[in-house]
Amino acid sequence: MPLPCGNRVTRLPDYLIKKGLSYVSKHIAIGVPFLFNRKCHLSFCRKVVSSESAFHQIQAMEVEKPWLRSSESDRYSKELDVAVKVVQMVSSLCERVQEHLISESNEQVKSKDDNSPVTVADWSVQATVSLMLSESFGSENVSIVAEEDIQTLTKSDSVGILEAVVKTVNECLAKAPDFGLTGPVRPLGTTEVLEAISRCNSTGGPSGRHWVLDPVDGTLGFVRGDQYAIALALIEDGEVALGVLGCPNYPMNKEWLNYHHRYYRIMSKLSSPTSESWDKGCVMYARKGSGEAWMQPLVRENNRLGLSNLARTIRVSSIDDPALATFCEPVEKSNSSHSFTAGLAHSVGLRNQPLRVYSMVKYATIARGDAEIFMKFAKAGYKEKIWDHAAGVVIIQEAGGVVTDAGGRPLDFSQGIYLEGLDRGIIACSGAKLHQKIIRAVDASWDSSNL
Ligand SMILES: Nc1ncnc2c1ncn2[C@@H]1O[C@H](COP(=O)(O)OS(=O)(=O)O)[C@@H](OP(=O)(O)O)[C@H]1O
Ligand SMILES: [Mg+2]
Ligand SMILES: [Mg+2]
Ligand SMILES: [Mg+2]
Questions:
Q1: Structure pTM?
Q2: Would you tell me which CATH number, out of the four given (3.40.190.80, 3.40.50.720, 3.40.50.2300, 3.90.1640.10), belongs to the domain 322-448?
Q3: Of these four, 175, 192, 283, 391, which has the most CB atoms within 10 Å of its CB?
Q4: Residue 240: beta bridge partners?
Q5: What are the tens digits of pLDDT across the range 95-127?
Q6: CA 215 to ligand 3 centroid distance, Å
């Protein structure tokens, strides 16, 4: 089921609006689940909606469609709908911040106590997602496990960056209607923004619903003008129910990936490519058990296309011959042993150079069939966090792939913020055959490794 990702409101004569609304109401009244033809429904809405209030009426009706809750296959429809829109919204925020970071200065980057980087974007995305989920589901119903806290942000030397966060959040919230969402009626103050960030301090666990957010995954890639992702997932009773990955620098068309990120920058200075020709970013999403994963282009301010019409299903690669397969891994060898994976690649017969990509875009490459294997072997003692994996895992699985630890067991999202009990590392593959070969190779070489 493709989901909407934004609507531009254009003024049309009143008689058309009425006609449009009565068309929608009629279909609801006679119980025609025009969800079956949601593409048509959305492009229809885009054509007939002439004011924000009319648009919100249609949205409200959309939310109350009874059939969304009536069948198991439509479970989490509303949650996924909201999650995709929110990720679209904050992907735009990240693009603006990244552009600014690259062209202006490094003042918007800080180091956390563990020396890892954090930026205006990380905090602003976390605040915005927290606010929009509360707005959509009621703050009392929303538990969020997320990476950032306000410790560094409230230090005395962070006054400038805190101001930038509040400004960035308010600018983003003001654009909520462009994405089919409702933002607050007035700009938020510093305390409210800090509260929104701090509220994401849930520790998850085996029962109940928990949203899991990595506001900017691959912050290092982000500050370097390279790949990064916004990752939002919903865990219910310890299982990942849905996942959304915003990948603002991962093009819809694989071909563009061959160009280095610097090329983007040069290109955007030479000409300002339209999103139609450039197609630079995408959002991917999936619901557990649906057997489908989807991708659609990022909503851009200059993008008035019928974006939901451009949503398409994605599928993992059908390549199962190691000689033809490509594996991807983290860019930084401090995050995953490049020498160990090189040994595995050799023993399994992988011939292609590894694709080193920052962030959960690695999960996206497998889900979309741009690579066949993703491996991560962190140093002993490092504990993987659930927000670095939840969204990517469900998207790969629904796209037809396999994700386990190196012992072949599924990742356990039920034990709080860490993937407790993870056996050695993470292996995601497009299919069972490659997966089995990698697992065997790990077993054969683990004892002689330094890991
Ligand atoms: N020491 C160590 N070992 C393993 N993993 C670590 C380590 N330190 C951090 N992290 C987590 O890695 C996240 C970034 O992973 P990537 O796959 O993007 O790594 S890389 O930047 O491409 O090397 C990164 O996510 P973000 O902080 O969201 O960028 C961290 O959660
Ligand atoms: Mg991360
Ligand atoms: Mg992060
Ligand atoms: Mg981080």
A1: 0.83
A2: 3.40.190.80
A3: 391
A4: 235
A5: 999 998 877 666 789 999 888 999 999 999 999
A6: 5
